Amino acid sequence: FRELFIASSDDKILVQLDMAQIEPRILGQYVGPGAYREMLFREPDVYTALTKDFFNRPEITKEERQQMKAIILGIMYDKQASTIAEDLNIKYDEAQQAIDQFFKRYPEVRKWIRKITKDLLVTLPSGRQRLIDKDKAKRTWKGALINCYIQGWAADCNKLALIELDAKIDYKKGDRLLATKHDEVVGETYRERAPEIGRAHV
User: pTM score, two decimals?
Assistant: First the structure.
């Protein structure tokens, strides 16, 4: 996506900003107090923190982190063990064991999923609503429901962040917002102003 753009002059650079790991963070807000939410504040990289907590080890490998990330996202979107096993090229039993262990470690996540799947009307913190049609859902209706809660609120957060960012950057000094895609923003500014744009995003 960002490769589609080039700076308009040699003294300017492109700035890429994104909402880091927003899906597991939003899940933490939904599920409420518990081990899962506490884990989110242990270190900047949520997937690293989750993996360390999941395996109960202070050190993990990159492969373990990537595997855990796939499992977490799979659980969040109601992927079955067979699909997760295929995605990760692992045995079905290993995938199912990981899912069971995740819900055992973070029971508040399963409790939240059971709660929201009792009603097909999704109501986001922003007040936006969407009625999930079981017959028209592209994925399983439960996966569509969870996706709407998480991606819907993520979209709202991204729009609010764009509004705040637009108010903070200085167009008179050469700052420009060029495009957005999902949770990523590409902008342009003079080299010396890049750190300031980063702070505005935070």
Answer: 0.82
